[in-house]
Amino acid sequence: MTDQDTHTTIDRLTERYFAGLTSLEEERTLRCLLARDGSIEHSPQRATMAYTAMMRRQSSRPHTALRRAMSIAAATATAVGLTYAALTFGAADSECYAMIDNRMIDDRAAVTAMVEATLGEVAAARDDMQASVASQLNEINLQL
Question: Mind telling me which residue stretches traverse the membrane in this protein (predicted)?
Answer without folding.
Answer: 65-87
